[in-house]
Amino acid sequence: MKHQSKLSTNQQSEQAAELHAAQKAGQEFESVEQLLRHDAGQVTVPPAIAQRLRQSIDNSNTPLPPRRGWWRRLLD
Questions:
Q1: Each residue of 41-51: pLDDT tens digit?
Q2: For residues 15 and 7, is the Cβ–Cβ distance under 8 A?
Q3: Are 35 and 29 within 8 A, CB to CB?
Q4: CA-to-CA distance for 54 and 56, rounded, in angstroms?
Q5: Cα gap 25→23, rounded to integer Å
Q6: How far apart are CA 17 and CA 23, in angstroms?
Q7: pTM for the model
Q8: Each residue of 6-61: pLDDT tens digit?
Q9: Is the four-CA dihedral 51, 53, 54, 60 of positive or negative sign?
């Protein structure tokens, strides 16, 4: 007895569409930076996250206080 696939024509067409989309999406990039640039062009950042990123970048421009040596922290 042969094992036959019992997929409906609708399921078969969905699988074919998924396969076609995966083949179409298969793109090669020369570097990781190119991949990230391409991905950044495809994705929209939610406004709340964009605002938090801007705040984080603004805060990163402030200089950090000088670090104390471990021996000073131990003696204090």
A1: 888 989 999 99
A2: yes
A3: yes
A4: 5
A5: 5
A6: 10
A7: 0.36
A8: 656 666 667 666 666 655 567 888 999 999 999 888 889 899 999 999 998 888 77
A9: positive
